[in-house]
Design goal:
The chain is an all-alpha fold. The chain is built from 9 helices and 2 strands.
Length: about 230
């Protein structure tokens, strides 16, 4: 299991390199272009070609696009569409692999349950340690974990994905130019607490005075960033 993780980490490091991703996308485009028009590759290439042409035509109707700009737009949209398609395929593949690993661990297929559980236990412990470091001595560990990590009803300690996306869209859509009142409603789109309000997270961990100071700093940074962007 350790050898597999070592090899997977090396491959993952190469795949995440931007130049490798660009070269791979260009290679995929050339591979589809080399296919016959009646083959699956040729039909996929013709479909993407029509999509790119329609997108460039849409830009041409709005802006004055000449030959040089049109060539760059065509190349850019080709790379963007193929990259998005590859990203979607990889996301689906990752989801399938995750489900397969869950099934292998649940059914103890090939006797890999202990190895999978050990690796996930190590990951869970590393994620739990930062939460435990800030636990006050007066709060029992069970109550602390039940409040912030693992509720008693076995539900995740954050809203469903649809609700998080909706709240994020409403938060950003409700803001007005020149207004900083939405600063405390800034959402974080990283980590397991996707789209949780920053002031709510901090409010659980610090006192009211520190929370007010935190929100004041956030408002100041948000206003400064807004002024810089507008200039």
């Amino acid at each position: 299991m350790g050898l597999i993780k070592l090899l997977a980490a090396s491959v993952r490091r190469i795949v995440r390199f931007p130049l490798f991703q660009l070269a791979f996308v260009v290679a995929v485009i050339l591979f589809m272009q080399a296919g016959d028009d009646k083959s699956a590759r040729g039909q996929m290439f013709n479909g993407l070609d029509e999509l790119v042409e329609s997108t460039v035509g849409l830009f041409s109707a709005v802006f004055n696009v000449k030959s040089f700009t049109k060539s760059w737009l065509t190349t850019g949209f080709w790379i963007a569409y193929v990259y998005l398609a590859c990203l979607l395929i990889l996301s689906l593949l990752r989801l399938v692999i995750s489900k397969v690993v869950d099934f292998v661990g649940w059914s103890n297929l090939f006797g890999l349950r202990n190895a999978i559980a050990r690796e996930r236990g190590i990951a869970a412990y590393r994620a739990w340690v930062p939460l435990e470091r800030i636990r006050p001595v007066s709060i029992p560990q069970e109550k602390w974990e039940e409040t912030f990590a693992w509720p008693a009803n076995n539900e995740p300690p954050y809203p469903p994905l649809a609700q998080r996306i909706l709240r994020g869209v409403i938060s950003y859509g409700d803001g007005r130019p020149g207004s900083c009142r939405t600063a405390p409603s800034v959402y974080s789109f990283s980590g397991p607490n996707l789209a949780w309000r920053a002031d709510k997270n901090v409010g659980w961990l610090i006192g009211p005075a520190h929370k007010a100071e935190y929100l004041a700093v956030r408002r100041g940074l948000f206003c400064t960033s807004a002024v810089s962007i507008s200039e």
